[in-house]
Amino acid sequence: MKPRIFHRIAELSALTERVVLAAGVFDGVHLGHQALIRQAREDAAALEARPVILTFDPHPMKVLRPDVAPRLLTATEHKIRLLASAGADTILLVPFNREFAAQPPDVFVRSLAEACRVVKICVGHEWSFGKNRAGNVTMLQTLGGEHGFEVGSIASVTVDGLPVSSTRIRSAIEAGEFDVARRCLGRDYTILGTVRHGSHLGHELGFPTANLSAHNEQFPPNGVYVIEAMLKEKRLPGVANIGIRPTVEPASERTLEVHLFDFSEDIYGQDMELRFVRYLRPERKFDGLESLKRQIQTDVSDAHRVFREIGRIVS
User: Is residue 137's pLDDT more than 90?
Assistant: First the structure.
């Protein structure tokens, strides 16, 4: 079931019950984020309140430091899907802009307290908020005393002795370390994108591809991968290439092309979520289209073998 989404703090006034907020950026919805959501849900049950996830669109770094802002683990639509999977049924998706970022911490908190009956706010132990990130957990506790709510601070979750963070997961994906990412996320890493028109070269080669326009999400290293695509309610096996297509018309930016096995439906404009099952080989330049076609045939055969190894029967 899709969560109820509010887009302005003032809209929380529609909630008649008491509220427990879980606040954060939630990029990736990793194990640390999941612990925060779980704590908010438990607190809400104990306090007979509604748990509400408070997050931001876009990622604050995209506004405050766009020159150094990283690619995301989860763009907004993807993040909402994952928050819902983690148990969020009500989300406050605050538009983040320079005007909002310039608010002093106490003004931000007062706007929450005035919009609804907040009885507790749960955050990570290093959470900061307000103008120049001047607000922290200690200040939030002080403001809680003024406005009548408690504050819950969640300690870091560690994996392999190191804290789980979006930055750590992003680095693991960039290096192709899917096992590290999986342990930190509590799930397989996936990319969400929209299928766009491409050059249609795949059709000419006998291997039609879907060109996936990722929503600014972090790519793994260039190469060919065994993948599973989630399209509406279907889970579809295939192979994907990430790179610049050096054999023909090299792209100026990295592209993501997906070939789905025995699939011919028109899916242009639809969102597709991609799970990376296994790395097959690096991207390389071939001496012609026939060589490229033979390699794709080999890639498809190798992918079928991988699916057999993991117990997935593919026709």
Answer: yes
